[in-house]
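debug: dumping io for the single-chain case to check the tokenizer round-trip. Nothing else runs in this session.
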Amino acid sequence: MDLIISSGRQSSLGDRANLPPGPSPLPIIGNFHLINMKDIYQCLTNFSKTYGPVYTLYFGSQPAVVLHGYEVIKEALIDHGEEFSGRGKFPIYEKVTKGQGLGFSRGNLWKATRHFTINTLKYMGMGKRTIENIVQEEAQWLVKELKKTNGTCLPYDPQFIMGCAPCNVICSFILQNRFDYEDKDFLSLVGKVNKCIEIISSPWCQVFNAFPILLDYCPGNHNIFFKNYACIKNYLLEKIKEHEESLDVTNPRDFIDYFLIQRSQNLEKENDNHQMNYTFEHMASVVTDLFFAGTETLSSTMRFALLLLMKYPHITAKVQEEIDHVIGRHRSPCMQNRNHMPYTNAMVHEVQRFVDLGPNGVVHEVTCDTKFRNYFIPKGTMVITSLSSVLYDSKEFPNPEKFDPGHFLDANGNFKKSDYFIPFSAGKRMCVGESLARMELFLFLTTILQNFKLKSLVDPKDIDITPICSAFSKIPPTFQMCFIPVQ
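debug: decoded output
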């Protein structure tokens, strides 16, 4: 299917008539009455059965083209990545970011910011203290903290500590230091991140995004989101100012230092790069995006993993047997071990596939008038990618509703890759921290299982893994458990 790009002119009403098919929208509310925000995946799947893999839904008066299934998502995000690389409108976030940062910026600003971020993270990973060293060290701090429970059967809620570990990893990158797990300011920041993600994942937040005028006039948790986000951003802005005062351009310590050095060089060469915004405000937005992305997504995934590992003890037993055989009890897990641990590697992949943390990723937008599969999509039209439809494809993953590491193992028990494994999305807008996130999941989970037996407070078959929110990102239910030290 070819894709033809027009000159980028404003789209007419006639053009919109050539959008992909979909249910007829009602005035003002569009198709909202047809969408169950508590089960968006099933709704999108049902629509695809009627209208095909490319169709249109109206959120209020705004059309959104939905891509459902591996082939069409690959065709859009990979084969025609530039045209589908725009960031769709997310009013509740735009109100606080004002178009700055990494996640929700657009055009040349986004391209320059992403290029700088990816290159800087690569530079930092090549230093004396590599990425893996940082994660391994944090994994040991995590074990030390969990051992403070002394193996008792007292109920323990792992939510905060599973947020603290990945947050400390990202803080090591952006702030050059980690925090103690009992640091009140640190716990407050982690708590605010958790609450922010919970709010934007609620069904009501999706209503506000479709009708942004309500944000200014209606009470609700979105005001807590604004307050918490501002608090986190202001904290990081103060850290940036502190970095500026102690900056040594010959010895950058962290991500903020690299940004400050690049900012200084850019100011000296005014015509060098006008695409990048080197203001402190933009810098704070970029760092805040990294802080959010590096904390909550890992925290939620690890909490879901703990629930799944307790619910399916036979899978946990196989993983721990492989850990004992390959690593032993007294050596810290490392990434080289992964090549010799196919079952454990498969388990980590299956956690991400099964959990399906971001069911539809973050909304995209076409960057120009586009003809796609014989449909016309006007510039600026939102594009929703159903990642769930790929991660739960029954042809690629037999019995996709079942948690089974075998989905990533061949007949001989060797690990097998899958092009359908896209929990980080795909194309030009895919998560910049994918490699770091995958490393953290492997090292944190193997280190935990190397040192502890996981004990549920209820019968494994009664463990509920239903997320409490799932509209934007899936939020695991609150639960308690016990970490019993391995003897």
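debug: round-trip ok. Residues 1-15 have pLDDT under 50 and may be disordered.
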